[in-house]
Amino acid sequence: xxxxxxxxxxxxxxxxxxxxxxxxxxxxxxxxxxxxxxxxxxxxxxxxxxxxxxxxxxxxxxxxxxxxxxxxxxxxxxxxxxxxxxxxxxxxxxxxxxxxxxxxxxxxxxxxxxxxxxxxxxxxxxxxxxxxxxxxxxxxxxxxxxxxxxxxxxxxxxxxxxxxxxxxxxxxxxxxxxxxxxxxxxxxxxxxxxxxxxxxxxxxxxxxxxxxxxxxxxxxxxxxxxxxxxxxxxxxxxxxxxxxxxxxxxxxxxxxxxxxxxxxxxxxxxxxxxxxxxxxxxxxxxxxxxxxxxxxxxxxxxxxxxxxxxxxxxxxxxxxxxxxxxxxxxxxxxxxxxxxxxxxxxxxxxxxxxxxxxxxxxxxxxxxxxxxxxxxxxxxxxxxxxxxxxxxxxxxxxxxxxxxxxxxxxxxxxxxxxxxxxxxxxx
Length: 427
Hints:
The protein has 2 domains: 4-228, no CATH class; 254-365, Chitinase A, domain 3 (Roll), CATH 3.10.50.40. It is built from 13 helices and 10 strands. It has helices at 4-14, 109-121, 131-159, 165-171, 173-187, 193-203, 207-227, 236-245, 272-292, 297-308, 331-337, 371-400, 414-422; strands at residues 97-101, 104-107, 251-252, 255-264, 319-324, 349-350, 354-364, 367-368, 404-406, 410-412. The two termini are 24 Å apart. 24% of the residues are buried.
């Protein structure tokens, strides 16, 4: 019996995937292809119209994800040697096919590395006897997320002239190196590209595989946006109606931008009298200079803060960015910020940490953003929502035209595929 905490973890990991749909298959092997149809290559789509490709020179249907990819542990192999751990799952290696999507194939290694990373990050929260079940559910979730990408990428390759595709893929090499590689280095907590390559190999994939996936995702996303028609422009009446219905969303509280001098008690070994003398000296010096020459307000305050203040913005001249009324823990400082006149020095204010002198630089009183100022953002929001609906409709249309097989659900004709892929969005 799986306890409630474990169920909550599974739901969090799956982000909405329905575990009731997960079931063990008798074997992780794809169905036979129709008579006369050649298998596609592991890393591409066989297109008879392209003379540079032929089934003979493409990789066999069941092959390692890359020549350097080490053999994966069995999918059913438990993470513990306990004899009590059992599972009915069949072995699933990184090079095995787990889905066919409109002439493309998906290998376990395409998603297994992400599954491995999630499981390892949460291993101490997963009962050992449930490791394999978690892997299987996560694998299915990752696979469902990849199917739409494969559908769109296949449609892209069917539509775009074959001679243009290499240029498109080549142009994505630079963004991958400049943006995706640094992101992966951060995610996997490694120091450089060499360590990244080693970490990915350990997880069962490679940089070249992830570069291919990055290219497919980028192309698929852009292709979907191009397929979808442009949304109808929002009219003035529609924007005004939206504004009237969402007026509260455009209310804003009072805000103040301010600066501070602070002397902390702990810098004086808790001697409050000594801290008081320091803050009073700073306050008197500041007041005399401000009164003598108002034009030096900013520079004088900033210089004194950098040299003498203990506040956490002291190095920035003691300046605090826009602060919402009621956001500060100390009510005395909060009250001063929203009662002082702009430019006026406060009296010495005592808090748990020390003594403060504050001054308001600018203040915005509470109010509501007028329609004339909100109009541009409303137009963008309305048209973005319409575009999103058109994009979803276009994707639904493509799903209905497609046929997919997965190790989890067998052969999926269009309508069933669309229903399955919509499940993660349901709550």
